[in-house]
User: Which sequence fits this backbone?
């Protein structure tokens, strides 16, 4: 069996030891924010304790509140749909494109009302959505755009890095993601006022916080006085732990390699499905670069009688790694069932999606996984 946590090693440990030696005073978190912003070519980055907290902070920082509506896709991790609910807003589910599986601009248009304040896009499985049309719609209707890039690091849309197109963007450092700190998240933006609001929202509304990391408006002597007022607004305690920030710095050093490894493994799967007309890969438009958090296929039941369960069972028999089916649509989960928003394309696609892993240390082992896929196709064809 492969080492499932192969991405973490001596580089991360060195940063963690340094963080401890420095007394866990927050310097690693500041360094991570500075370097992450530079890596993505943006002005501000705010580190938090999870991708979900990043989404929550982005929605809250934009001033969205009770009764407002936020348009979201239904096919993704539930945190995207939950984030508006955390501050009393309503998620409105727009349908997806049948080929890219990403949120569809035409469906977004149909969901806009007078109460709509924002759109949350998701770069699903590592593939950025149709951002030009989405940004045009947002500008026309005076809406904010939050890019959810929890599954995408350095995917590109028409040469632009995913996460640098909308008003604000988020990333996840959860264990399975391209860059991991065990858990954690990041918010990025070029808007100074928004960055300050997000930082305060995510860190107890501290008066001294500014858009830039470590930027305090007063000296420590003043802060230590008994009459000092610390909290100018309500905020949450979403701070990223210093040890997680240190680990993320080690990951950032080798991020390009981690991304290229997933892309290389996706290419092996692409070769394995050549000639098979009943497994349809997620479509990557010519002007988009996929970062392949996972490699996804649709089981086309119009061309085969093979069931999802039968495919998975055969794949495992041939030596394939266990894989997940797609998440249940967010609005069909027990927590949200009965909410507005029915998405016919998403409902028809979700039961037939196959999410193959791209997180392998060994290319030789990845080749065995691709071979298991080819053998599965051969047996079931």
Assistant:
């Amino acid at each position: 069996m492969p080492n499932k946590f192969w991405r973490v090693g001596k580089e991360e440990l060195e940063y963690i030891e340094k963080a401890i030696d420095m007394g866990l005073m927050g310097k690693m978190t500041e360094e991570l924010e500075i370097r992450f912003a530079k890596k993505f070519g943006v002005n501000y980055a705010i580190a938090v304790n999870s991708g979900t907290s990043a989404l929550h902070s982005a929605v809250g920082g934009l001033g969205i509140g009770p009764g407002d509506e936020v348009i979201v896709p239904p096919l993704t991790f539930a945190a995207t749909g939950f984030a508006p609910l955390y501050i009393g807003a309503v998620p409105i589910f727009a349908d997806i494109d049948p080929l890219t599986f990403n949120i569809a601009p035409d469906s977004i248009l149909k969901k806009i009302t007078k109460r709509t304040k924002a759109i949350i896009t998701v770069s699903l499985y590592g593939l950025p959505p149709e951002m030009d049309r989405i940004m045009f719609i947002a500008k026309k209707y005076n809406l904010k755009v939050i890019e959810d890039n929890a599954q995408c690091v350095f995917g590109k849309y028409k040469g632009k890095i995913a996460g640098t197109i909308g008003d604000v963007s988020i990333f996840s450092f959860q264990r399975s993601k391209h860059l991991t700190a065990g858990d954690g998240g990041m918010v990025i933006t070029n808007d100074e006022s928004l960055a300050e609001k997000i930082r305060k929202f995510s860190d107890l509304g501290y008066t001294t916080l500014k858009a830039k990391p470590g930027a305090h408006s007063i000296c420590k002597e003043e802060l230590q006085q008994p009459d000092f007022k610390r909290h100018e607004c309500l905020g949450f305690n979403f701070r990223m732990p210093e040890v997680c920030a240190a680990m993320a710095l080690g990951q950032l050093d080798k991020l390009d390699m981690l991304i290229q490894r997933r892309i290389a493994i996706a290419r092996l799967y692409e070769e394995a499905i050549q000639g098979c007309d009943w497994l349809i890969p997620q479509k990557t438009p010519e002007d988009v670069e996929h970062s392949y958090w996972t490699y996804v296929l649709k089981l086309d039941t119009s061309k085969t009688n093979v069931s999802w369960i039968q495919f998975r069972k055969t794949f495992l028999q041939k030596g394939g790694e266990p894989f997940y089916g797609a998440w249940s649509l967010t609005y069909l989960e027990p927590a949200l069932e009965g909410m507005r928003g029915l998405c016919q394309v998403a409902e028809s696609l979700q039961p037939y999606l196959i999410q193959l892993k791209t997180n392998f240390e060994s290319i030789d082992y990845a080749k065995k996984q691709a071979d298991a896929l080819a053998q599965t196709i051969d047996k079931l064809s």
